[in-house]
Design brief:
Elements (H helix, E strand, L loop, with lengths): L1 H18 L1 H11 L5 H24 L1 H8 L3 H22 L14 H6 L1 H10 L2 H15 L3 H27 L1 H47 L1
């Protein structure tokens, strides 16, 4: 029992800092600013479910998909890091007109619902960093014996479900955080979160470049 709890916490602790639902909550709140509480809750639920599906798929079949298409993890890191950087940069520059918004007409609910996967789930919540961690955990699972593989797989899924729960709760209560901080505090926190997203994207790109460098160095050597 202790080993199961430890493995669940290991997966949860490995993914939580990278997914960072608490840090992304202000960005979620800003992107769903003009929508009703029911729509926000629906979008938060969809993002959480999408995130769980992406992480579980990366855990179990991600490495096989990459092998099938001949794509390396370094390429995923570099390309995904670029997407994260661009998404964070857009959010960072979007905040300048936050106070100038005038809701002239009711917002289209379908528009925000269509954004539940891109960009809210991928790449802002579950990006290439999270997928890379899930791929690494999955590769370790494939090396285990059958019985241990089943136990490890179940504990990994439980850890991912806890990540999904954390995403849902942080995004659902993001409006309360927004009210607590006020317009100025929310704007500052969104800018900081967007800047961190940009930095994370650049770091992921450099991780991919570093892997490419080691590969080229090995070929040259």
């Amino acid at each position: 029992m202790y080993a199961i709890v430890r493995n669940v916490l290991l997966v949860f602790a490995a993914l939580l800092p990278i997914v960072n639902p608490l840090g992304m909550a202000p960005i979620f709140a800003e992107m769903t600013l003009e929508y009703s509480e029911n729509i926000r809750r629906t979008v938060a639920m969809r993002v959480a479910i999408n995130g769980i599906v992406l992480l579980v798929a990366s855990l179990f079949i991600g490495s096989y998909v990459l092998q099938f298409f001949g794509v390396s993890l370094a390429a995923v890191q570099f390309g995904g890091g670029l997407v994260v950087t661009v998404a964070g940069w857009r959010i960072l520059n979007k905040q300048s007109d936050l106070k100038e918004r005038e809701p002239e007409s009711p917002p289209d609910n379908q528009e925000v619902l269509s954004q539940a996967f891109y960009p809210l789930t991928m790449p802002l919540t579950v990006g290439p960093g999270s997928i890379a961690v899930a791929l690494t955990l999955g590769s370790n699972l494939h090396e285990e014996a059958h019985l241990q593989l089943i136990v490890s797989a179940l504990t990994a899924v439980i850890g991912i479900l806890l990540i999904g729960l954390a995403i849902f709760l942080c995004y659902w209560f993001s409006e309360g955080l927004q009210r607590l901080l006020g317009p100025t505090g929310t704007s500052v926190l969104i800018r900081l979160s967007a800047f961190i997203v940009v930095c994370i994207g650049i770091q992921i790109m450099f991780n991919g470049l570093e892997e490419f460098y080691h590969v080229l160095k090995g070929i040259a050597g």
